[in-house]
Amino acid sequence: xxxxxxxKDDLFVQTMHIPxxxxxxxxxxxxxxxxxxxxxxxxxxxxxxRKPAFRTAATAMIRGLISSSSATKILRPFLQKEIFSRLxxxxxxxxxxxxxxxxxxxxxxxxxxxxxxDLEPLASMDDEQVIELVAPAIQRYLTGELPALDH
Length: 151
What we know:
By secondary structure, this protein is mostly helical. It contains 7 helices and no strands. The protein starts with 7 loop residues before the first helix and ends in an 8-residue tail after the last helix.
């Protein structure tokens, strides 16, 4: 395996025929200052999905995941390790897990609404408009007050 792939995550990306490793995109966005990470994440997401090769492969993968619980079981560890743990490492340990789950819900919802079901007007909005509207919600999940967690 190590002869052909860097690690198990690289094997996963290659077998799913995704031309870009989403973990690397998130890792780059996660280097932004914490108070700007919401915008960096949404910008990275939209930039990546604009690439036709990525969009085709990722759309097929997500459609498969939505309809298959066994595919979800395979993808979950990859998402947790390669994508969401990178965000959690930048957050206070006591609230990192729920904050990252909330960010994931927003990102996954955006992907499904905009790219899988083409929900209008979101599907045809300009990227800058989407960033302006969605990034503050993600930023709040990352660094804002979350009353349910503060108890």
